[in-house]
Amino acid sequence: MTNPEKHSLIEDAQGVAYGATMAAFGIVILTHLGLVTGQTAGLAVLVSYATGWGFGPVFFAINLPFYVLAYLRMGPVFTAKTFVAVALLSALSLWLPTQVSFATLNPWVGAVLFGFLSGSALLALFRHGASLGGIGIVALMLQDRLGWRAGWVQLGFDAVLFAAAFAVIEARLVIISFLGALVVNLVVAINHRRDRYVAA
Q1: Three state DSSP letters for 68-101
Q2: Transmembrane residues, as ranges (predicted)?
Q3: How far apart are CA 149 and CA 8, in angstroms?
Q4: Domain presence at residue 24
Q5: What is the DSSP code string of 27-81?
Q6: Per-residue model confidence as pLDDT tens for the chain (200 residues)
């Protein structure tokens, strides 16, 4: 186990910026392919597909109620960092599609790339005392209080969300999407361990 040292403000800023940017790039891949994902982001994607509203505003709005829970259970610093991460992801998800395009992107490969990008994004945010809100906050709370791995908690929520996805997108895309969500959660479940990495 490493000897933890408190992250500096610059280190936290870099971690949050990295996490939000990689997560936004993952969303660009996901929505380009018409796929879905789990957690609060997945709910926002499904709502955006069903209504035509942009992912960024929907994601930002869905997260608003969770900040109360985050403040009460995780404290003001975690809540503030999470708010910044969610706001940055919401903004970048609107801007990045104007800067990045794909001539060829195999859906299966794209799902895996999304999974790795999103998994590394969540790890960066978790290790700097933040999350992408929503279910991520609940998952971290359960991990800290009950010892349940955050990735496995999120996987359970994802199962329910993916069942609903069959009503919104075609079954083939839901199956491909499941691969991406599985990769995300495996990355988090395997790598986010407080007995190996502890950050003040």
Answers
A1: HHHHHHHCHHHHHHHHHHHHHHHHHHHHHHHCCC
A2: 16-35, 41-66, 78-96, 108-126, 146-167, 173-190
A3: 26
A4: yes
A5: HHHHHHHT---SHHHHHHHHHHHHH---HHHHHHHHHTTHHHHHHHHH-HHHHHH
A6: 344 467 788 888 999 999 999 999 999 999 999 999 988 999 999 999 999 999 999 999 999 988 988 887 778 998 999 999 999 999 999 999 999 999 999 999 999 999 999 999 999 998 898 888 888 777 777 887 888 887 678 778 878 888 999 989 999 999 999 899 889 888 988 887 665 554 43
- Nearest in space to 130 (alpha carbons), one of 60, 80, 171: 80
Q: Which residue type occupies 76?
A: P
Could you give the number of structural domains in the chain? Answer: 1
Specify the amino acid at residue 67: Y
Q: Residue holding tokens 């990689």?
A: 22
Structure tokens at 52: 């035509």
Residue 82 belongs to domain spanning: 9-191
**Within a domain: residue 198?**
no
pTM above 0.90, yes or no: no
Q: Which residue has the tokens 């800067």?
A: 99
Q: Would residue 59 count as lying in a domain? A: yes
